[in-house]
Amino acid sequence: MTSDDPHLVETNGSSDLDAPESEAIDHEKGQRGVRLLLEAMGENPDRPELAETWKRRVPDVLETFSEGERPDDKPTMRTFDADSNGLIIKTGIPVYSLCEHHLLPYHGEAHVAYRPDDRVVGLSKLPRYVRWQSRRLTMQEQLTRDIADGLADEVNAKAVLVEITATHMCEAMRGIETTTATTTRATVGSPTDTEQRRFRDAIQRTED
Fold first, then answer.
1. CA dist 133 to 20, 98, 110, 138, 193, Å?
2. Fewer CB within 10 A of the terminal residue: the chain, N end or C end?
3. CB neighbours of 88 closer than 8 A, spacing ≥ 6?
4. Using CA atoms, how far apart are residues 115 and 206, in angstroms rounded to an integer?
């Protein structure tokens, strides 16, 4: 396929906007969309400082921040026999996602805990799973719920607790233009009072 857009660079008879079928997003639409947005802002997309922005940089970012929509990009959650059914806690997991209302980032930390049935997952998989879930357009509340539900399914956990605290650029850069932190929580199953207290204590130690 060859594009009719005069701004597109032709290489060996094909447009730079043509994306191989193996690519995760439609790069041509991404490039056209970014170019239109720049023009809507009164910018010249062809000036040297912006040429690579719409041709490569922003479409690459869109590919990264849509990984969570692609099951093939999900980390392999290989499990092992559990030595016990005690609560497993992982705190301070970095979270970077995009608000689906404003297409602006929010970032913060996730804390995850689960009580295994008879199988556990490697600890390094928990941050990777959180990262995969967060790489999509979503609300913080929904992301928190998706991580909890997804982790419960992945490891067949009897109980899962997830807490995310994040700062939203849609508040800090626009609107009230104030930097605040938003905390959301989600639970699967019925964690005991002791497990909830252990989870809270672990988060507190991370914040201190």
1. 25, 11, 12, 10, 28
2. C
3. 113, 114, 115, 116, 120, 123
4. 20
Tokens of 136: 């999509």
* CA–CA dist 100, 3 (Å, integer): 30
The pLDDT tens digits of the residues spanning 52-103 come to 999 999 999 999 999 999 999 999 999 999 888 899 999 999 999 999 999 9
Joined together, the tokens standing for residue 74 give 């999900």
b/e sequence 122-132, b meaning 16+ C-beta within 10 Å: eeebbbbbbbb
From the centroid of its chain, how far is CA 151?
15
Lookup result for tokens 């609560």: 87
Q: Which two tokens stand for residue 92?
A: 């301070």
CATH number of the structural domain 76-207: 3.30.1130.10
Cβ neighbors of 60 (< 8 A, separation 6 or more) are none
137 Cβ contact list (under 8 Å, min separation 6): 65, 66, 98, 99, 100, 103
Residue 38 φ/ψ, nearest 5 degrees: -60, -40
- Token couple for 161: 């607790």
SS3 state of residue 88: strand
H or E element in which residue 187 lies: strand 182-189
* pLDDT digits 0-9 by tens, 133-177: 999 999 999 999 999 999 999 999 999 999 999 999 999 999 889
